[in-house]
Amino acid sequence: MSRHRSGPVVVGVDGSRSASQAVEWGATEAMLTGAPLRLVAALGPPAVRRTDDGDLQEVSARHLVVSARAALDMAADQAVRAQPCLDVDSDAREGFPVPVLLDESRHATVLVIGNRGLGGVPGLLLGSVSTTVAAKAECPVVVVRGTVVGPGDDRPVVVGVDGSPISDSAIELAFAEASERGAPLLAVHAWSDRMLVELGPIVDMDAINADERQLLSQRLAGRREEYPDVEVRTLVRRDKAAEVLLDLSAKAQLVVVGSRGRGRVSGLLLGSVGHALLHLAECPVLVARS
Question: Would you say 111 and 104 are in contact if contact means Cβ atoms under 8 Å apart?
């Protein structure tokens, strides 16, 4: 993970299976980086539930606190069982999930959330929450989904590269993650242009592909020297970025992308691509910030 921040690894907790996976990933990340682990639950507004008689009854504030504390205690136990030497802190905070998590992102090294939560009390990790937080947080965000593996697994860390400044941040994070996990790095540059395709035979696609390979090589050059222990593989493909990255996520342990791409020939993280990855990837997704 990027060394530009020295805060904790923050994990959103709500007692759901998705949040449990986030705790597992966050505990491993804290162990690998030496950062403290902070577990956070958002209490949210008073909720209602249906009684046995079919009537709606407001859930008391006390019940919200008790439920949140129970979820946090379970998460802390899970984290310590997985990584006994961790420094673990937990907090049940008042407020809606998105503002609470965005506030936590101001001081976090990375924010880790599940892709879907209970949708009830305390209801932290609804799908829309993960998407909004990934787009607006002030630190890198990991949305944990699909298969979660630990250090030493030979599946690669996949990073999307499009030549934009934000993809440089993604490259930095991807190299750090690959180094910490002892994993190979697969750097992917997907490009396509409808106008070029329509021009057909008069366009030298091989020459364009060579230029795109050169762009990818240039973006990786400095990081290769900084992380000589990381095995680097590259892939340049004329295709839609979302389709390429989603396909690769099936055999990856992490996909790393920038929060927004160039919006040109090889733009990687325009809204539709980011949305696709956060909702359909088959492994955790790390969204880098500039």
Answer: yes
Q: Which of 86, 114, 144 is the last residue of a domain?
A: 144
Residue 114 and residue 90 in one domain: yes
Q: Contact, 23 vs 37, CB < 8 A? A: no
* CATH number of the domain where residue 95 is located: 3.40.50.620
The tokens for 265 are: 């020939």
**Domain housing 222:** 157-288
CB 163 within 8 A of CB 266: yes
Output 208 or 2, whichever has higher pLDDT: 208
Binned at pLDDT 50, 70 and 90, residue 163 comes out as: confident
The model's pLDDT over 66-125, given as tens digits with 9 standing for 90+, comes to: 889 999 999 999 999 999 999 999 999 988 899 999 999 999 999 999 987 654 434 444
Distant-in-sequence, close-in-space partners of 261: CB < 8 Å, separation ≥ 6? 162, 164, 166, 167, 241, 267, 268, 269, 270, 273
d(CA 168, CA 203): 29
Same domain, 64 and 133: yes
